[in-house]
Every structure is written in structure tokens, then in C-alpha cells.
């Protein structure tokens, strides 16, 4: 399944008690993996660090699923890999992507966001 071609994907992470939390995000294909970018201090990053098992599906911007969910494993990326994710998103989302990423950099700096790679999907 090539979820990286979807406009948005729903990434479901799991709380410590097992309850799912789904979030729609921009994503891009990176080989066999799907990548996305998010604030470094977000709850989804905290949940991924605790439990890297996720569920992903294509969705609309509100998070309404368009494809069947599949299981995957998420990995929080280092600074160099995060910059690579930003570049993939800039290419995929064009002008809107560049403006959004620039705004994020101005608000949060270089370390305020991280890339995430989802594999085993």
C-alpha cells in the first residue's frame, strides 16, 4: 500500500492504557516507508516513544478514513533525517508546503519539529 501518495494520512497512536488516538497529518512516501512531520513536544511523539506500534490509513483533512487501516511501526527521526522529511513534504505539497514549513521554522526553530518514519506497513 502506498499511503505516501494520499493527501493526508490518519496516524493512530496508543495511550499507555491502550486507548487509540488518531491524528490526520501530511505524509510523503520514502521508499517502503511513509514519513510525516510534527511538533517535537506533541503527545503523539510521546506516545510513539512509549509504544512505536501505530495504525495508518488514508484520510481527509478531518481524519475521516478513506482506506483500510494497516499496522506499522513508527520511529522518531534525528535532525538530519527530519530535514530530509521536510524536503520530501516541500516537494509533495508545493507552495503550501513551503509556506507551512517556513512558518513552523519561524515559530519553533529547527528543533521544534521532528520527522517520523513508519515502516512495516
Please give a quick description of this structure:
The protein has 121 residues and is α+β, with helices and mostly antiparallel strands. The protein has helices at residues 43-50, 79-108; strands at residues 8-14, 20-25, 28-30, 33-39, 53-59, 70-76, 113-119.
Poorly predicted regions = none
Assign a percent range to the helix content: 25-40%
Helices and strands, in N-to-C order? EEEEHEEHE
- Helices, by number, come to 2
Percent strand: 35-45%
User: For this structure, what is the CATH homologous superfamily?
Assistant: Electron Transport, Fmn-binding Protein, Chain A
Oligomer: single chain
Q: How is the CATH topology named?
A: Pnp Oxidase, Chain A
**Radius of gyration in whole Å, from Cα?**
13 Å
User: Any idea how many domains?
Assistant: 1
Q: Care to count the β-strands? A: 7
What is the level-2 CATH architecture name?
A: Roll
Give the class from helix and strand content and strand pairing.
alpha+beta
Keyphrases for this structure?
121 residues, alpha+beta, Pnp Oxidase, Chain A, seven-stranded antiparallel β-sheet, 7 strands
Amino acid at each position: 500500500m502506498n499511503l505516501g501518495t494520499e493527501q493526508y494520512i490518519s496516524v493512530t497512536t496508543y495511550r499507555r492504557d491502550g486507548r487509540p488516538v488518531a491524528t490526520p497529518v501530511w505524509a510523503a512516501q520514502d521508499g517502503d516507508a511513509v514519513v510525516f512531520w510534527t511538533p517535537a513536544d506533541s503527545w503523539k511523539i510521546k506516545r510513539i516513544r512509549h509504544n512505536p506500534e501505530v495504525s495508518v490509513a488514508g484520510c481527509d483533512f478531518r481524519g475521516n478514513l478513506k482506506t483500510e487501516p494497516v499496522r506499522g511501526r513508527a520511529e522518531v527521526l534525528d535532525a538530519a533525517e527530519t530535514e530530509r522529511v521536510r524536503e520530501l513534504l516541500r516537494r509533495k505539497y508545493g507552495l503550501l508546503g513551503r509556506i507551512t514549513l517556513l512558518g513552523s521554522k519561524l515559530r519553533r526553530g529547527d528543533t521544534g519539529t521532528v520527522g517520523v518514519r513508519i515502516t512495516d506497513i
